[in-house]
């Protein structure tokens, strides 16, 4: 008898009619002979409402009390789903974070899951009950409620799947899977049947917002097979028979026939570019730039250092340094750098938010040379200027002008052979 | 250092502005040198919303899951009040029912409080923290959440006050105290400074809806001094300095100067009168009437048996039996009685919902004769017909026509010397 975890987001839990649809979907898995745990989010909008109350009560709210307040949203939906399951003849009970318990550290409002006790859960599943578990919550050692931070329900689902040895963890979302790229930009984008954890991490962190990144990292560490699939056939339609989604698995599981050099193309317009001109060309100069940013907890992404200006009568040699930071951190970055202008010794700080990062991702590039070269050639042929480049083992990213985002994604999608056959 | 419990209802918790007013009121008690526990209700309307979800999910909802859902309302307000207290410099923390814990039996959705562990609570209060405790909830032996039934937060407050040895339990409500009668009927009704537990029970059960009856019974049993006072000066005004309310205490605490024969006059229009005609006048006949009503869990209140019709040629002697039941149970009562017509042997069932029960209540009548007589005379002088009478040690009740309710209350209020001096 296989064990599976099913996770439903806030849109799927928004109101009793939708909760009933979820119950019907769960019943099908039970009738297929599975032992099922369901992890649920709060009703869409509810967590925002509760967070709003906390902020209104005090801008500097105590995160321990915040967790008491916001965890109530998932408590409500877990009880309601248990009732809806019982109403269609499926034995079910809710297990709150402190009841299982799901142990976490004491980082209130952004806790990390430690261990999950499974004795009671095992007994309940073996007795034929569906376990309904509120996502996003746990309990700290002292017995106080914790929450995992926004989007933490995906992580809860993967952690529960790992603890109970589930065959897979099905994440029902607003999208029906992971695509080769954003279908709003490329109508001929294809849904991927399989994708590796590493690729999913790269695709998620560069803009394909399907799963919380933390949950993918945990799934990789614990070897939990995750499936992303749609809870709706249309934006407001009740959940019908679900089409197969995308399986996120280890590289060894990817079927040979599925293997391609490039799995997907992501874009991210939330980067900002900063250039410091005439930084002295001497040891320690680059460290002087990035230390104040690290102190301000700002993640620097792409870094390029131009050819040095030659030393001469005008003084010692110097160089321009360009890098990107998250757009939301731009103002703080400028403050930090200007505050350190004396130590760094740059002439001018130039910034630009009208940039986009385009990434091609695929585990196949480990064994295929020429991926980066093909990317640069393709973009160059269309006159798209590359402002910065960064690479990892399974990803090549370039920074371009924001206005060229859609063009770049489309030509690359075609160039790497990702376009679906015309219907 | 005195310990007190403060309890705030849903109207006082309806929104952050009001929660801030509550926090300010709590701060005053802390600054007066008291150790304070606060028991809170859910935001006004929230419990109805959550109950509505449960009913929509299934008419026959599991009360264990219902308790998981509806207890979330008080969880939210307890966290928010703790945040609001901290924001004005008052150390505070929330203690959920399962955290203290507040042990209850396993009668989910209508649980009764057993014991309350006070070790953690004592430590917290002694450390100078305000303890914020959600009303209405507890935890059963197996570790599942329970709720006490609607209005249970008053009972929570009294139980917490008893457990922590509080000097008094202040219940902040929409009214500013207990009155000699309904001020909407008698503008010269007076607010009582003190009232005994027994009187409060009689006044509450016959219509003066201020406190949940169960909480008064518990206060009497545990000797908890309860004060009813207003959280508002006007229906929507923020809580200002609170006027003294009404203390509910043991009879021995009532000051001699306060003692009156009659404390208050209550009315209740929610009764229905049933008359069964020509019930055989023989042993066991009355038992045959009330057994089916008891089986249907219907509380019969006033009972009168008319003079028997004489036995003669028409058959054995017979009698008419009249009694009252709660108006909400009338239909079920008629069904039960008609179903037993064979055993009872009555001729006709006549019912009347246009009746009202008027009660005069006072511990003083124990030592004063003539209270009932004065009541009958006063009503008779105004031509008000009495349809039934019942008495207890501290109460005389009569059943009259509904249209005469206000007149009866006014003339009795004057006759027993309860009218306030004209201002």
TrEMBL record, chains A, B:
EC number of the protein: 2.7.2.4
> Domain of life, per the record?
Bacteria
Output a single Gene Ontology CC term carried by this record: cytosol
According to UniProt, this protein's pathway is:
Amino-acid biosynthesis; L-lysine biosynthesis via DAP pathway; (S)-tetrahydrodipicolinate from L-aspartate: step 1/4; Amino-acid biosynthesis; L-threonine biosynthesis; L-threonine from L-aspartate: step 1/5; Amino-acid biosynthesis; L-methionine biosynthesis via de novo pathway; L-homoserine from L-aspartate: step 1/3
Question: Which PROSITE patterns does this UniProt record tie to the protein?
Answer: ACT (PS51671), ASPARTOKINASE (PS00324)
Q: Which GO terms describe its biological process?
A: homoserine biosynthetic process; lysine biosynthetic process via diaminopimelate; threonine biosynthetic process
The protein here is known as Aspartokinase
This protein's species is: Sphingomonas aerophila
Q: What is the lineage of its organism?
A: Bacteria, Pseudomonadati, Pseudomonadota, Alphaproteobacteria, Sphingomonadales
């Amino acid at each position: 008898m296989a064990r599976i975890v099913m996770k439903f987001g806030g849109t799927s839990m928004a109101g009793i009619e939708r909760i009933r649809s979820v119950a019907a979907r769960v019943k099908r898995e039970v009738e297929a002979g599975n032992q099922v745990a369901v992890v649920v989010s709060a009703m869409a909008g509810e967590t925002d409402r509760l967070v709003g109350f906390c902020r209104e009560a005090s801008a500097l709210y105590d995160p321990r009390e915040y967790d008491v307040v916001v965890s109530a949203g998932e408590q409500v939906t877990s009880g309601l789903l248990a009732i809806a399951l019982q109403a269609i003849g499926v034995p079910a009970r809710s297990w709150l974070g402190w009841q299982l318990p799901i142990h976490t550290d004491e980082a209130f409002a952004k806790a990390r899951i430690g261990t999950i006790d499974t004795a009671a859960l095992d007994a309940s599943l073996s007795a034929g009950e569906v376990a309904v578990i509120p996502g996003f919550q746990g309990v700290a050692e002292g017995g106080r409620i914790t929450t995992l931070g926004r989007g933490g329900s995906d992580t809860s689902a993967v952690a529960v799947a790992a603890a109970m040895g589930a065959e897979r963890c099905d994440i029902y979302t607003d999208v029906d899977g992971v695509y080769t790229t954003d279908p709003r930009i490329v109508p001929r984008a294809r849904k991927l049947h399989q994708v590796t954890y590493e690729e999913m991490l790269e695709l998620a962190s560069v803009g394909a917002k399907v799963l919380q990144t933390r949950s993918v990292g945990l799934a990789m560490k614990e070897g939990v097979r995750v499936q992303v699939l749609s809870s709706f056939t249309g934006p407001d339609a009740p959940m019908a028979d679900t089409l197969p989604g995308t399986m996120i698995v280890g590289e060894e599981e990817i079927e040979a026939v599925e293997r391609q050099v490039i799995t997907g193309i992501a874009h991210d317009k939330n980067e900002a570019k900063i250039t410091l001109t005439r930084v002295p060309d001497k040891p320690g100069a680059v460290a002087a730039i990035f230390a104040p940013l690290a102190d301000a907890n700002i993640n620097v992404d792409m870094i390029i250092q131009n050819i040095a200006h030659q030393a001469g009568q005008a003084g010692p040699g110097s160089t321009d340094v360009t890098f990107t930071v998250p757009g939301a951190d731009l103002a703080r970055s400028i403050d930090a750098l200007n505050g350190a202008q004396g130590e760094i010794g740059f002439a001018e700080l130039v910034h630009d938010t009208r940039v986009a990062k385009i990434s091609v991702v695929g585990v196949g590039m480990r064994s295929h040379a020429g991926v980066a070269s093909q990317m640069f050639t393709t973009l160059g042929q269309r006159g798209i200027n590359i402002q910065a480049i960064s690479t990892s083992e399974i990803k090549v990213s370039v920074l371009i002008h924001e206005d060229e985002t859609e063009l770049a994604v489309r030509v690359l999608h075609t160039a790497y052979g990702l376009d679906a056959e015309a219907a």
